Amino acid sequence: MSHGHGWKNQSTFPLTAAMTEGKPFQQQVEAPAAGAAGSSGSHPESINETVIQAVRKKKGETANPLADLSADEVLAHAQAFAEANNLPVEYLRKGALVAKSPNQYDSLSILSDEDKFELRREKERKFWQPKTFYNLVIACSVAAAVQGMDESVISGAQLFYPKQLGIDGAESERNRWLNGLVNAAPYLCCGVLGCWLTDPLNKAFGRRGTIMFCSVVSIICCIWQAVTNTWWHLLIARFVLGIGIGPNSSTVPIFSAECAPAPIRGALVMQWQVFTAFGIMLGYVADLVFFHVPNKPHITGLNWRLMLAAPLLPALVVLIQMPFLPESPRWLMAKGKYEKAYRAMLRLRGSEVIAARDIYYIFILQEESESTVRKGNRFVELFSVLRNRRATLGSLLLMFGQQFCGINAIVYYTATIFTNAGFSEISALLASWGFGMTNCIFAIPAILTIDKFGRRPLLLSTFPVMAIMLLFVGFCFWIPEDSKARIALIATGIYVYTAFYSSGEGPVPFTYSAEVYPLYVREIGMSLATSVTWTFNFIVGLTFPPMLEAFKPQGTFAWYACWCAILFVCVLLFLPESKGLTLEELDQVFSVPTGVHARYQLWNLGWHFRHYILRKKEPHQTLWEFGGDDADSEIFQDKGTNQVSTA
């Protein structure tokens, strides 16, 4: 076996029932002639066998399963697939050849000049997409803004409602814990209930229906919070709000990832975090707008009630817009609805040949992945199937890190932090708005770089600065309170920290988690990932007020700075890169053994030091070359399945 093959999934490739109405494909297409490409000079019994041969991966590449097939074989298979599923045969044949040779479309005589123009435009102007696609992006972005507002409006509201509802933290330790519990209640619900509704809701209603359900829950709970008069009633309303936040935070990134073209998937899925940051800023704007609203007869605390109700407006926008958008083509294909999937893809791509190419290639890769699916418990398979386990490890690492890097301690208690630093209440809210604006603005550069440089470089270049800034902010609290430098330095440290967070750990976790799981466990994997992030979000929101009291700001910020340093090391060793590949091609990336990946990253770090600092001319190795035969020896065949796993 050649180097690198040990990491590749060499499973069979069944091109059968989904496209042949229950009949084996080999019964419907004649065997290729002797000597056909991919046949190795023999007579395969079917094109299915030829595809099996083509699936063998080449060293250092993410293989295209169609690359070693002849044009006639691909055309015959595409025609059978199209006819069996009522798809346009002409365009499926064209799209199949483009999928086979994506960089050689200019030489394909089957394509018209218009087809070639559309393919050339896609390559040269990758952000040119149809209006429907950008309408989908806008809807998903507004859905993210709803979550951001739900997170940040509490920062201004808690300046008022704790006193009115009898849980002012200045009075007792019990009240500090109750205040933290009320603030963090939605995220407790997300962790224990909301996120786990993602899978059943998506199965029943699809991506669009789930997002609409979440919008309705958010609207109801925003009104509910605004009419409460006891702390426990507000706690219940905010807990139920988590049923809207949890599935929404899982489904929207998946919806974006499944609908976006691979070259710009990272940038488009990242809109989730950019507009979450934008929503956080809007939440602070709502706090400022309603700060001076006076009480009315029979309405005490009208200002904080309006703050908590404000997110219902963007939720209403999402609810109105979603029915006019196409469903995820991948979700439709997983349900066997190929004709609807093609129509949805056509609306998203705006070109018959591009839509046909994507539908056909997704089908081919899904069939390859399907051959490795065990029909057991999908949650168990997140850990028992090694390809899934590596994706789960990377996803959960980033989701945990998004909370324990310290950001939401600042989001929920920005006004409290700035008040403790010496700001007046209105000045603290203005400073909080500045924090939200920084969070939003500095997420934009990540859109432009995530698909160019990748996910890992954004994280590895930002965690060290975040750790330094958190230490800096904590140490600034030793400056005397009457010093103007104290206020300026604390605000500066928080803003710089936020700028680097927004370029790395802010946008990457949801983007990464939405793309790394195979389709058959994608919903359950994203449920677990978002459950982890919201559970630790709850822990941060609950414990931050007592930590400030017990450890003072210096110790509290130092705690989160240490976690930033730990997360840097974990990302370096255990996080595979995912940029630029289709969702199906990521199967190969996650076939690299974790130990090989970690050893390679340590070697690669040393190589960069020796090459750029010591100026040595040592040759560089790719990850695929680094493992060599050591990885091959770790292959074993799972008994009772068709799956080849790696240790």
UniProtKB/TrEMBL annotation:
Membrane-spanning ranges: 177-197, 209-227, 233-255, 267-286, 306-325, 396-418, 430-450, 457-480, 486-503, 524-545, 557-575
Pfam families: Sugar_tr
Stretches with biased composition (Low complexity): 33-42
Topology of this chain in the membrane: Multi-pass membrane protein
Reactions catalysed, as given in the entry: myo-inositol(out) + H(+)(out) = myo-inositol(in) + H(+)(in)
Residues covered by the Major facilitator superfamily (MFS) profile domain: 136-579
SUPFAM superfamilies: MFS general substrate transporter
Gene3D superfamilies assigned to the protein according to its UniProt record, in alphabetical order: MFS general substrate transporter like domains (1.20.1250.20)
Record-linked NCBIfam families: SP
PANTHER family assigned to the protein according to its UniProt record, in alphabetical order: PROTON MYO-INOSITOL COTRANSPORTER, SUGAR TRANSPORTER, PUTATIVE (AFU_ORTHOLOGUE AFUA_7G05830)-RELATED
Name used for this protein in its record: Major facilitator superfamily (MFS) profile domain-containing protein
Organism encoding this protein: Vanrija albida
